[in-house]
Amino acid sequence: MKRVLAATAVLAVSLASAAAAQDVTLRVHHFLPPTSTTHADFLVPWAERITDQSAGRIAVEIYPSMGLGGAPPSLFDQAREGVADVIWTLPGYTPGRFPTIEVFELPFVAGSAEATSQAIQAFHEARQPAELDDVHVLMLHVHAPGTFHSRQPIAMLEDLDGLTVRAPTRVSTAALEALGATPVGMPVPQVPEALSRGVVQAAVIPWEVALPLRVHELVEHHTEIVADRGFYTAVFLFAMNKQLYEGLPPDLRAVIDANSGLPLAREIGAVWDAAEQRGRQAAVDAGNGIVSLTADELERWRVALQPVVDDWIAQADAAGMDGAALVAEARALVARYDQTP
After folding, report:
1. How many Cα atoms occupy the beta-carbon half-sphere of 331 within 13 Å?
2. Is the pTM of this model over 0.85?
3. What is the rounded average pLDDT for all residues in the chain?
4. If you write DSSP's letter for every residue of 176-238 in order, what string do you get?
5. Is 50 exceeded by the pLDDT of residue 314?
């Protein structure tokens, strides 16, 4: 059953019957509102399955909109330290801390959310990057390729010259700079106020996220990069406190495991892809203008953004990683899962 804790404005999902013995209650913490696709269409169904498959021995409470306190960049450490039991977050909010998985955020690497989410999860399972060792990774995924949402039309590179644009990650910041824009880094909950106050003139976010934030009411123009690979995406992490996971009885760990990994990455990827159309339709219904880059203009963007990829490879090499191999592996995995029926 769902219950709203009005006094604290926290939405909690408790799915065990009163008579069921509850061995553990998982507090799931994230930064999006309860109206978001991630909350309503991913985390709530996940919680229901966990409680049902554990016969009520695992209860789940979901705290959206940073209901347990802190700011979005603190979520990883909250899971590491046990402030929260399970977190859903964007690792890129702490630039440079998670360098390996950044490879999927590079320009024109990501495809659909479904394909790319499976690709990054497979990448993680194969490589087990040390940067994530402090938590138990339930799943990694991405959003659908992002879109520009702006106060003025963006149809060519020149339209970005000096434009202040919200950027979510280190890689997207570099990409926007390469395109001539002035990036302003901020977590997504700050976007509506930043747009309304003129702190930024545009934001790059997927349609799915724009809808619950009502971005279509704050801007009049949207620019899509329609190609087999997107201009950018962001990597998300769904993770659990490591000590709590390892201390669960084997049968309860098996329930968590059955709702983790590649199947879960495919599930949330498909959910995010499907939600894109709802966000786009809200902009259409508002009478906003939607531009798709022409083929010639798209090629100009590709050329302008190639140095971002080259620089990332050089930085990875300097850190002792084979940057070119990582990029090739990421692209190959996306292509593999793009073909998976």
Report:
1. 14
2. yes
3. 92
4. HHHTT-EEEE--GGGHHHHHHTTS-SEEEE-HHHHHHHTGGGT-SEEEE--SSS-S---EEEE
5. yes
